Each structure stands twice: as C-alpha cells, then as structure tokens.
Amino acid sequence: MTTDYRPMWTKLGLNLEGHDALLGVLGQLYQSTYLSQKNRPAGMGYLDFVMSEVHGLRIKELEDAKATGRKVVGTFCVFVPDELILAADAISVGLCAGAEFGFEDAEKMLPRNTCSLIKSFFGFKLNKVCPYIEASNMIVGETTCDGKKKAYEIFKGIQPNLYVMEVPQMKGPQDKELLKSEYMRFKVELEKLTGITIDATRLKKGIALVNNRRKALYRLAALRAANPVPISGLDALLINQVAFYDNPERFTESVNKICDELEQRIQKGEGVFPKNTPRVLVSGCPMAVPNWKLPSIIETSGAVIVGEESCVGERGTQNLVEESGDTVDALMDAIVERYFKIDCAIFTPNEARLDHIKTLAQKYHADGVIHYALQFCSPYVIEAYPVEQALIAEGIPTIRIETDYSQEDIGQLKTRVEAFIETHTCPK
Amino acid sequence: MTTDYRPMWTKLGLNLEGHDALLGVLGQLYQSTYLSQKNRPAGMGYLDFVMSEVHGLRIKELEDAKATGRKVVGTFCVFVPDELILAADAISVGLCAGAEFGFEDAEKMLPRNTCSLIKSFFGFKLNKVCPYIEASNMIVGETTCDGKKKAYEIFKGIQPNLYVMEVPQMKGPQDKELLKSEYMRFKVELEKLTGITIDATRLKKGIALVNNRRKALYRLAALRAANPVPISGLDALLINQVAFYDNPERFTESVNKICDELEQRIQKGEGVFPKNTPRVLVSGCPMAVPNWKLPSIIETSGAVIVGEESCVGERGTQNLVEESGDTVDALMDAIVERYFKIDCAIFTPNEARLDHIKTLAQKYHADGVIHYALQFCSPYVIEAYPVEQALIAEGIPTIRIETDYSQEDIGQLKTRVEAFIETHTCPK
Fold first, then answer.
1. SS3 for B191?
2. C-alpha distance from residue A47 to each of A53, A304, B104, B114 (Å)
3. Contact, A154 vs A109, CB < 8 A?
4. Which uninterrupted H or E stretch holds B70?
C-alpha cells in the first residue's frame, strides 16, 4: 500500500492499533492461503489487488461516494435485496466477519455458545476494526436464525443505525406476503435514508446490475465442471466473497474476464490441479472473509472444491429476478419471487435444499459432499442430518464437519478430510 | 395404582420395560421433591392424585374419549390455541418432556448441542415411553425456535401425524396477519381431523373454558403475593404444569378449591414457609414435568418462589381472550389478539418481557430474580443479557442460571443459589 489510509481510518473511528493487528494477520493468511497456490488464473490478480486494498481503496471509494451524498448500506444476509439498495443509488456492502477477533469482548454480551460469525461481527464492532461497519449509514439485520435475531437486539445498543428485517420461516402464501411487506417496508426505509424515490426505472437498473453479477458468477460456477478444474475452490470462494462488497459493475466485468481465461484453459486442457483430482462439493454455512480454513484444508489434502452450496456460493446466487415488469409493483413482486426461492435452512421444511445439493453434486461431477456447519448454528447443524440421509440414499459419499473460527482443530479436521478423500474417491 | 394399565400401554405401543423404569424414577422424584414438603395445602391432594395417575387414569380418559369418536391433539407450545382444539370437541394435551431419558438415541438424530427439552421428547418417542404422544391423533409443532423448527423435520420421520404451525418473529401488522392465517389454517386442519365445523357457539365455549382456567391460575398467582406465602413455588409450578394435560373443567374447579384454602391460610397468617422467607421470582424457559430441579434447589436453600415468568407460568397464561364477539371471524380475531401479546423471547424486539418481569417482581414482592435458561436455548440464553441489564437498572438483584436436565450440576447450582439468596436478601 502506497497511500496512507490512516487519516481516513482515524476519521472513521477505527482503533488503529487493533486494526493494524487485524490487517497484519489477514495479510499473512492471504499470503499463505492464496498467494502460495500454484497455476492461478492471471485474472485473479484483480482479486489480489482488491484484497490488498480491502480496507483501503474500497473504503475510500465509499467515503468519496458519501461525500457526494450517496449512502452506504451494510448487510449480513443474502435475503437483503441488493436490487433495492442499488435502486436507491446507495452502495451495498456485506458485513459478515470471518475471523476470531475480539471474541472475549463479544462473550461479555453474548453466550459463549454463539456461532463464530455472530461473535466475529460483535468483536469487530466492539474493537472498532471494521471500516465497513463504521462507514455504513444504515445496517440491515434480519431474523434468519435465533442467534442473529436475538444478538441484533444487543447489537443495536452499540450500533443505533441498525434496521431489522423479518424473514419468513415457511413457504406458504402468507410467507410470501410477509416477505413482500418486509421488502416494501425496506424500500420506504431506503427512500427515507437516501431521499430518492425508487421508481420503476431505478428498480430495473438495480435488478439488471445484480442479475448481471449473478450471471457472471453462474458462468464461473459452470466452468468448474471441467476436468481438470480450471480454478481452485479457494479462488472461486474468494470471488464469491468479494461479490458482497466490490463495485458491482467492475466486479462483474472482472469475473467475466476471468471466465474468458478459464474457457481458454479448458480448451487447452489446462487446470489448476491435475486431471482427475478428487472433486468435492462443499455445502452448508456461509464463509466470510477470511474464513478460508476448511477450503484450505481440503485443497491441501489432495482434492479440489468444485462448488459451494452456500450463501457465499450458489445458494446465495441461484435464480435471477425476472426483469420484464414495468411497474414498481410488478418489479417488487419479481424480486420477492426470486428471494422467496432461497433454500436456506431457516425454512421448514426445506426439501429444495436437499435437491439443490444433489443437483450441484451431479452438475459438477463431485465425488463427495463435505457438509460444513458453524458450531451452534442450529439450522445448518440440525439440517446436516437430513442432508446426510438424502446423500446416502443417492449413494453420494458425505462427511459432516462442524467447526468454528479457531485454528485449534485444523490438525484434526485435516485428518478427517484426508481420510474422507482417500476412502471415497478413486483415480479415474 | 390398583388398576392394571399394562394392557392399555401395550395397546398404545409403549415399551413396558422402559416405561416402568421411567415411572419408577418419576415416582421416586415426586416423593423426594413433592411429598417431602411441609405445610402443603390439603387441596394439593388432587394434584398428588393426578400425578400418581398421570400415565394411568388420564390416559384411560383419553382412550375412552377416543372410543366415542373424540380426538386427542398433542402440543408443545403456548402459541397453539387450546380454544380451537376444545371448540372442535378435541382434547388438548401438552407433550413437552422434562426428563433426561433416551438422550443417547436422540443424539443419533440431533446435535448434542440441542436443548434438553427437544432431546427429551425425541428420547421419549424413540423409546416409546410417552403415552400422551402415542395416544395423540394429531401432534402440533411450531416454528418458535431454530431447535424445534428444524428438529420437527426429523421428528416427522418418526411421527407422521405431526402438523407444523408457523409463529411470527416480530410484532408488526404483517405478523398479526400471519398468525391469523396460521390459526385459520389450524382451524381447518382441526375440522378435518374431527369432522366438526367450528362455529361461533363452539368457539365461545372453547374460549370460556380456557379463560376460566387462566382466571383460576391468576387467582392462584395473586395469592402468592402474601407474606408468609401460602403455597410453595414447587406446588404452584406443578399446578401450572398439570394445566397442560388435565381435563380443563375439573382442573379449574380444583385450582379454585385450592385458592379458597389459600385465602383462609392468608387470613390466618399461615404460610408454607415462615414469614419473611426470602422471595424469588423465576424467569425464563418453561419447565416441563418432571423438571423440578431448579425450583427444588431454590426452595431447599432458604427461599420461596413467588412467581414464574415462564410459558409454564404467567407468560403462558397472561391475558384473556375477549369473549364478546358473536361471529367466528370476530372470535378468531380475539384469539389472535390474545396470543399475539405473548412476550416470548422468539420475538424481536421483546421489550414487553422485560417490563413483565419487572412488574411480576414488584407485584409478588420478590427480593430477586433468578433467570433460568436451558442450555442451547438461544432465544432465552441471549435474552438473559438484556433481562439482567434491565433488572440491574431497576436495582433488582438477579442471577443467570443455565442448565439442562442432568443431575450432575445440582451441587454447583445449589452453591450459586444459596450465595445469591444470602447476598441479596436480608431478614425484614
């Protein structure tokens, strides 16, 4: 970094000492996890740059935009429709945190038996090390799981600009109505925040922007069906992670460039790992930056990840919003239709997710599925059982991993993952 | 027991050996917890009888009623409106289980990090020791917490007559609509089950029955404000527990008789514990039979429990249904209004509960509040923090207890409870 961002960080109220410590760890981890990979696509240089400037240039962009009157909206969940945020000319940034930082402080307010993702955003906030939280004009929580729903009540005490959106728990007509009324309420809130009335033209533009980003991510996902696989699971995950806070046009363009390169690789039969490397689908909880623990273990244990059934992955991006409507109401309905299909474990029943996992495993020719759940994430930890049953019934090898953000269980996880890969895959 | 219920239990498919073991433990526990108490009201003889016949006579009543064509509906939550069940001439029984039984089997399907209440009803089902589950024609689950919501999906595999009702998570107009649509859906389901159309007359009768039961329980609760306290917290809890499965008319009559007796006691200045015994309000998770662990610890540590802010207590019974409506729609609206006020920790925000706890503490002249949460019950475990903050702000001494159904922590809990009572109460 050549620019000195310290004045900006100070202005945002960051604790520079803690922030330096966090950036130091992040930099080292990125070096050892990402930059040490072999055969990376050249297009990943863009992601390397984004990551090197994740608390620098991108925050400066947010601050510059705010100086022109635009607003920044921080979110924690794929149920919050970016289309509406963009339609209000605001900037959407993902706030989920993926590092064990400030957990001791978080545990003064939250039970120890709280999932790492929640403790992490509390820890980041309490220690003033997240410029995205501090730069946000409005922060959107949601009632997805008990942990987040109840933790937000406490969070609001330290983050007064928190707004909470309700998400339904079933898929009946009354639930779709509830989701629509919540999206309408959110629209009004965004209009209040930005002073902009979200009309059909703005909404269509927002929808197109987000759809284009999704299309680029689908294109990337589809290319991973090739053998050899043209991009590592770690790199693909990073792209999905960065999707949550990068500028959407620039990001979409960069992903499409990477896809052009991957197509050439496939044509030439080039891959990031040797042909017939055992292929794994990872399914379960989202992985926020820099939670690369499990993918890193998998891809240094002789396998390659070919897909993510995750909010940071295809659960989060599947299905486009229908763009043909011409009125606000028709477009809002189209947005509701799309988001209502998300097969998150917060829904009951949630058969669609089991089907989606099986479909992805087939589509990407996975040899097995690794189900990943954050400890104390009840929806995914409990749903791991029906997922396992469904995969066993299909003859798809599977293993359940439950872990947190600590580094202590890496050895044990590696042993389990290696054994799974050795047992359930054979050279083709 | 003089009657041989074994043929009935066999017919219900119970595992007699396991069931004998369970009844043996229950009988011993009842003896040591309840019958060993001093100065009990004579009216508690009714409860002693009910408990001695809890798997006998009451089950026979259910089976006899079923033989005449009536249906039995088993429930797990105070959001399931008994008024509708009774209006369909069906019998409502509570199914929450309060004993560590069959947990090993439950943990084959559920994560170990699941609350004891859920593991317990799984354990009872898997071991075929609960005649109420086996006697039920329909079992109603609900989407209150992540644990139950997701566990019911697995439970349905072993209990196909399970029906799941959605409960909202916030208190906006859209949530009241959702609750109403769910109650209408439940009404239709009950009509299908029983073949009875729920008209206004039937609904009014169901509402009156449940209101009368509530009124008797309020009367009981109010009498506990006296000093000395005329009834132990253990006995009052038992009455609230039995409310969930006893015949409502008979139960209401028996509670009113006990209240008559308690009024006489109060007039004479008689109590179950000496005057000025330290007074405690218990607030938090429900306690299902035979989960008497914490109340027993409290009342053998020099204090008396004067109220329960709990589903099995005043959170479950507060507020009556307005009876004045004359149409099904008006009466359904009245039911929705009443249930929508329940201040369960599943709602966000849930300020009403904090107010209710403070009100109860004042009303019953509590010296302190013991917040009780089942381990891994995220809504109550997380809400314990704001509850504590609110009570500290009011100068009300409070302690947070987190436990499960095991007996292992009794010594430790007793030490903490004794210290709390000694520190925060002084002889008046």
1. helix
2. 10, 20, 48, 40
3. yes
4. none
> Distance (Å, rounded) from C-alpha B298 to C-alpha B304?
7
Best A150, A164, A388 member to test B by mutation, with max B CBs in 10 Å, is A150
Rounded to an integer, what distance in angstroms lies between the CA atom of residue A308 and that of residue B51? 53
* Cβ contact, residue pair A168, B166, below 8 Å: yes
Q: Which residue of A has its CA nearest to B108?
A: A385
- Determine the pLDDT at residue B152: 98
pTM, full prediction: 0.97
Residues A108-131 as b or e (16 or more Cβ within 10 Å = b)? ebbbebbbbbbbbbbbbbbbbbbb
CA distance A120 to A404: 11
CA–CA dist A286, A97 (Å, integer): 10
Show the tokens assigned to A211: 């759809």
- For A67, A68, A342, A365, the CA distances from A390, given in Å and listed in that order, are 52, 52, 19, 17
Both tokens of A152, joined, read: 């937000």
User: What's residue A424's pLDDT?
Assistant: 83
Q: How confident is the model at residue A118 (pLDDT cuts 50, 70, 90)?
A: very high
**Averaged pLDDT score across all residues of chain B:** 97
List the single residue in B143, B147, B381 with the smallest CB-CB distance to A111.
B381
Residue B176 CB: number of other CB atoms within 10 A?
16
B122 in contact with A, Cβ within 8 Å: no
The Cα–Cα gap between A159 and A119 comes to 15
DSSP B135: H
Q: How remote is the C-alpha of A117 from its chain's centroid?
A: 12
Task: Using pLDDT thresholds of 50, 70 and 90, give the confidence band for residue B424.
Answer: confident
Q: Are A178 and A168 in contact (CB under 8 A)?
A: yes
| Stretch A23-27: mean pLDDT | 95
For residue B249, the tally of other CB atoms under 10 A from its CB is 11
| Sign of CA pseudo-dihedral A272, A277, A283, A287 | negative
A297/A303 Cα distance (integer angstroms): 9
3-state secondary structure A321-342: CCCCCCCHHHHHHHHHHHHHCC
**Degrees to nearest 5, angle at CA A214 with A212 and A215:** 65
Rounded Cα–Cα distance for residues B400 and A240 (Å): 41
Q: What is the mean pLDDT of residues B139-168?
A: 98
> Which residues does chain B have within 8 Å of residue A170's beta carbon, measured at their own beta carbons?
143, 164, 166
Torsion over CA of B414, B420, B421 and B423, rounded to 10 degrees? 140
pLDDT in tens, B339-379: 999 999 999 999 999 999 999 999 999 999 999 999 999 99
Indicate the residue of A149, A174, A185 with minimum beta-carbon distance to B169.
A149
**Whole-angstrom distance, CA of residue A7 vs CA of residue A141:** 29
Rounded distance, CA B34 to CA B50, Å?
13
Number of Cβ within a 10 Å radius of residue B162: 17
Write the Ramachandran bin of A338: left for phi over 0, alpha for psi from -120 to 50, otherwise beta.
alpha
Radius of gyration of chain B (CA): 21
Contacts 24+ apart (CB under 8 A), A47-53: A47/A235, A47/A238, A47/A239, A47/A242, A47/A254, A50/A242, A50/A246, A51/A238, A51/A242, A51/A289, A52/A1, A53/A1
CA B259 – CA B250 distance, rounded (Å): 14
CA dihedral A387, A389, A391, A395 (to 10 degrees): 170
SS3 sequence of B310-364: CCCCHHHHCCCCCCCCCCHHHHHHHHHHHHHCCCCCCCCCCHHHHHHHHHHHHHC
In the structure encoding, which two tokens stand for residue B364, read together? 């019953």
Strand partners, B399: B370
Q: What percent of chain B has pLDDT over 70?
A: 99
Chain A: residue nearest B167 by CA?
Answer: A169
